[in-house]
């Protein structure tokens, strides 16, 4: 009898573990972040792209060093009537406040790319909060624009970074199309990578100070517009509430 009772307890325990595991792996959160779902693990992920069928896309520029090609990029955006999203590091904004203002005056928007451009997955919650609040406040002081978007330096993140950013009201944004302009590819190679990688809801990663980025921008904008795509800032591409994010980082409206 004792053996039977013990066996029943073991079976009950194993069933309970199985149920909890299934629930954990199939979970979806709505809000400014969601979780990976899969067979073995779950973790928070940022927004890499957005599930849309209206051919809306966003082009983004990370700003951390230099401004040599920024005017040319802004001119191309203006000529093509495209509004982009610039993710700026605090020390860049403070060094080049006139360019932060130019970005806003052009109709584009600014998100934070951190205060110090560090690997933020190595930071604790308090250090993360300091980076996000300090950088966003610096941007707001110079431009008068409220900051709601955040891109982690190096694309480096963990659960604590995403959840902390969400608690502060930031949407953490990655990309699904990498121009690799930071590798100093030719303008034609940069343009080809972007044009061939884009789909509805894509977020394109570029840099304001890539060696050939400014040359590639007008080609990218013209080509994709001719293909029926419409560029909008990230804040107009993403869903603000009632959404899920799947394992690939694709944001979808909640069912």
| Helix-strand category | alpha/beta
Q: What is the number of strand segments?
A: 13
Task: Provide the gyration radius in Å.
Answer: 21 Å
State the end-to-end distance: 49 Å
> Spans with pLDDT under 50 lasting ≥5 residues?
1-41
Q: Helix count, per DSSP?
A: 9
Write a structural description.
It is built from 9 helices and 13 strands. With 255 residues, it is α/β, with parallel strands linked by helices. It has one domain (44-253): Alpha-Beta Barrel (TIM Barrel), CATH 3.20.20.370. Strands 4, 5, 6, 9, 10 and 11 form a 6-stranded parallel β-sheet that branches. Strand 9 (177-178), helix 7 (187-197) and strand 10 form a beta-alpha-beta unit. Helix 2 runs parallel beside helix 8 (213-226), helix 5 (125-143) crosses helix 6 (159-167) and helix 7 runs parallel beside helix 8 (213-226). The radius of gyration is 21 Å and the shape is globular. The termini are far apart. 41% of the residues are buried.
Short description:
The chain is α/β, with parallel strands linked by helices and 255 residues long.
């Amino acid at each position: 009898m004792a053996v039977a009772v013990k066996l029943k307890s073991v079976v009950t325990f194993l069933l309970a573990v199985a149920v909890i595991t299934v629930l954990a792996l199939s979970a979806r959160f709505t809000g400014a972040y969601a979780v990976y779902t899969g067979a073995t693990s779950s973790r928070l992920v940022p927004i890499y792209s957005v599930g849309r069928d209206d051919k809306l896309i966003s082009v983004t520029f990370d700003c951390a060093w230099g401004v040599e090609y920024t005017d040319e990029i802004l001119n191309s955006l203006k000529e093509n009537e495209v509004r982009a999203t610039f993710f700026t590091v605090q020390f860049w904004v403070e060094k080049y406040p006139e360019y932060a203002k130019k970005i806003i005056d052009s109709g584009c928007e600014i998100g934070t790319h951190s205060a110090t451009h560090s690997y933020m997955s190595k930071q604790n919650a308090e250090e993360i909060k300091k980076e996000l609040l300090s950088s966003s406040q610096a941007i707001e002081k110079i431009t008068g624009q409220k900051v709601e978007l955040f891109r982690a330096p190096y694309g480096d993140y963990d659960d604590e970074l995403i959840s902390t950013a969400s608690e502060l009201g930031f949407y953490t944004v990655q990309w699904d199309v990498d121009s690799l302009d930071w590798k100093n590819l030719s303008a034609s190679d940069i343009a080809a990578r972007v044009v061939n990688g884009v789909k509805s809801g894509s977020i394109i990663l570029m840099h304001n100070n890539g060696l050939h980025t400014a040359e590639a921008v007008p080609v990218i904008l013209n080509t994709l517009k001719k293909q029926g795509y419409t560029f909008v800032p990230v804040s107009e591409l993403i869903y603000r509430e009632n959404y899920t994010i799947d394992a690939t980082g694709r944001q979808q409206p909640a069912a």
